[in-house]
Write a structure and sequence with these properties.
By secondary structure, the chain is an all-alpha fold. The chain contains eight helices and no strands.
């Protein structure tokens, strides 16, 4: 069943509202990625991952917020159910996260080819040990949605960015300094991230219809 015209229109409005900020952010991602390829610095690699999988979706969701609730008030004035508005928001930000995941995967592939000593066990191992990075996008999205109901958008965005970013930095540190393997740590973070994301949708679904914009 296809979407009705108001839904399609809302997707387009969301795209145009967030496009410029996202294009600028993607440009920053490529600059950091190229800097890592040139220098092989771990800090730059972590920045590349964080920008791809955390910053991009948080930036997209922040762009949907608007100033003083004006964007939300505009949305609820459209002939679209609030549950459908929520679906558009989730689908839009997940699509951005998928774009980030594609960029990250391509970056890992190129890095594996260029810096063979950096990813010692090849592309498959690099993806497996970085699986938590993909999950962190879901964690960031979930936290941003939940916190956005109780905090100003910019503060919710900062917290939703910082928690996954710190997690990204700590996973290899924990693996290096404990008996927990990087694969176990990655899978654990991935599971927690998926749970946070799913929980956020049901929390938002219950609260969204009651919010007075």
């Amino acid at each position: 069943m296809g979407m009705n015209n108001p839904m399609k229109g809302l997707f387009l409005l969301t795209y145009f509202r967030t496009r410029n900020a996202l294009l600028a952010s993607i440009g920053g991602v490529f600059i950091i990625g190229l800097a890592f390829l040139a220098t092989e610095q771990e800090l730059l690699y972590n920045m590349f991952v964080i920008l791809c999988m955390i910053h991009l979706p948080v930036q997209a969701l922040g762009g949907m917020g608007g100033t003083e609730g004006r964007w939300e008030r505009f949305q609820v004035s459209l002939p679209v159910k609030r549950s459908d508005l929520l679906k558009v928001q989730y689908l839009s930000v997940v699509l951005v996260a998928i774009i980030g995941a594609v960029i990250l995967t391509a970056g890992i592939g190129i890095s594996t080819a260029v810096h063979r000593e950096w990813f010692n066990y090849g592309f498959a191992s690099a993806i497996a040990s970085s699986s938590h990075s993909y999950g962190l996008a879901l964690m960031a999205i979930g936290l941003a949605f939940i916190l956005g109901t109780v905090l100003p958008h910019h503060i919710a965005g900062i917290v939703a960015f910082m928690v996954p970013a710190l997690t990204q930095a700590l996973v290899p540190v924990i693996a290096d300094n404990t008996e927990i393997s990087i694969y176990v740590a990655s899978v654990s973070v991935l599971v927690v991230s998926v749970v946070v994301f799913i929980a956020s949708y049901f929390i938002m679904k219950g609260a969204y219809g009651k919010v007075d914009f």
